[in-house]
Amino acid sequence: MQLIPCPWCGPREESEFHYGGQADVAYPDDPAALTDEQWAQFVFFRDNPKGPFAERWFHSAGCRTWFRAVRDTRTYAFLPGSPA
Amino acid sequence: MSTPEHPDALWRNPEPKKNYDVVIVGGGGHGLATAHYLAKQGVTNVAVLERGWLAGGNMARNTTLIRSNYLWDESAAIYEHALKLWEGLEADLDYPILFSQRGVLNLAHSEQEVRDSVRRVEANRLNGIDAEWLRPDEVAKICPIVNVSGDIRYPVHGATYQPRAGIAKHDYVAWGFARRADAAGIDLIQDCEVTDFVVDGDRVLGVRTSRGDIGAGTVALCAAGHTSVLLDRLGVRTPLQSHPLQALVSELLEPVHPTIVMSNKVHVYVSQAHKGELVMGAGIDSYNGYGQRGAFRVIERQMAAAVELFPVFARAHLLRSWAGIVDVTPDASPIVGRTPYENVLLNCGWGTGGFKVTPGLGQAFADTIATGRVHPLLAPFSLDRFVTGALVDEHGAAGVAH
């Protein structure tokens, strides 16, 4: 089974984690000021790269902490040095 | 003793020309079907560009389920259009595709699923689609190997049943479309990866490929899980996320399973191929991935569900498993139609369920390309619905996988 490096617990089995999709998607500062197009971008549109992808992961069956990691979507390998 | 003659090839393997009226990117089921129906409309100066070999991606990896019992009018219309074409496809292609209308059962395991399922049956009937609600004893009559006893973790409370649903031999379907498109003069070009576009303002002049630049009057994208990679080159964003979707087969067994059974709740669906393998699929792996492989724990969970529902499967063995890359959208409905580039048309987002719509999409997408007007059956699935909010939410009917 693929091991995922939890920044708090170290490498743990993939089944302990929950996927959170693209990282660094900030909630808009002033949602009411957005156009429909901008709101749609925030709600529905995410990057879908073939290669390194910064993601949110949740150690749901462990320390229950969300963290950020960079993973290669071609090989599924977590890249070393991902900022936590 | 003489060596047997190599059989005739079903299609040519031509060199790409400099220009085509229409370039279809992606030589899977949708690209080949679109080519076939373009030829039927008299449009034959067409190339289908495939980065690997014809129909070697999701067309080779899907579980071949065909049904039209979707909830909303928009989905029911396109999938039923496809099902009607499936019913005449062997004659149209003059090629055997082993289309077998053996029906599909969608199981309900909770009171809420019962309510949702009955609602979907009524919606299907209003759309002229064959649909019935069956009690557990009626489920057992149609598929005797389903465990309908009350002492399992998720008892079967009933099922929707679409008798006209079925399966077909996916490879034969692709070959049938390819053979007819080739015979009409359409160039099917393999080992030809589209890497970029030649852009002029809000038009595309052609595509850059691993075999040189190819000019195009219209570019039609049929690239499924790789659509985002192509659209990134054009700076066009979509809500697509590419995920691995796994499937597996058992060794060959005697005929034990007469229909198709799907269960959203326990995440498995099963049919038995003509040759005898049990063909099973699960839900997508949770993370984005382009690797055409998934985690074995997903397979394990799927097997646990299958053995619970079908105790007889405990004696079967897993023969092989694989994965495709599916392009999933937020509302589990496809994205088809226009892009910000006036001569680039988009067909993607069929996610886990693109096989069943192959002839319907091919016919309607070809009509869109030939006339320049988005076909009415495809119009509800435009990219701008994510801005207008006119979503076609089919998570219930798409379920575990289409």
Automatic annotation (TrEMBL), chain A:
Database matches in Pfam families: SoxD
InterPro entries named in the record: SoxD, SoxD_sf
Record protein name field: Sarcosine oxidase subunit delta
Organism: Actinomycetospora aurantiaca
Native organism taxonomy: Bacteria, Bacillati, Actinomycetota, Actinomycetes, Pseudonocardiales
TrEMBL record, chain B:
Cofactor dependency: FMN; FAD
Name this polypeptide is given: Sarcosine oxidase subunit beta
Family: Belongs to the SoxB family.
Annotated EC: 1.5.3.24
Entry keywords, A to Z: Cytoplasm, FAD, Flavoprotein, FMN, Nucleotide-binding, Oxidoreductase
EC category: oxidoreductase
PROSITE patterns xref list: RHODANESE_3
